[in-house]
Design a protein that fits this description.
The protein is mostly helical. It has a domain of 31 residues. It is 48% helix and 0% strand. The protein is globular.
Length: 58
């Protein structure tokens, strides 16, 4: 499987606000990626989710 590449300019006009829970460890990893790429935490989360959905075993 190809590795995920976080894209800096990946904005969507279609969004829905939801609340999710995650472990502190996961939060820290995502926050670090967002800081290193200088993009929002939300943008990283959305890219991670899209990648996971596109690479699910059927």
């Amino acid at each position: 499987m190809d590795k995920l590449e976080i894209v800096v300019d990946n904005k969507t006009k279609d969004s829905i606000t939801r609340t999710i829970r995650m472990s502190g460890k996961t939060y820290d990893k995502i926050a670090t990626i967002a800081e290193e790429k200088e993009i929002s935490f939300n943008n990283v989360v959305n890219q991670l989710i899209e990648y996971a959905l596109n690479n699910l075993k059927e």
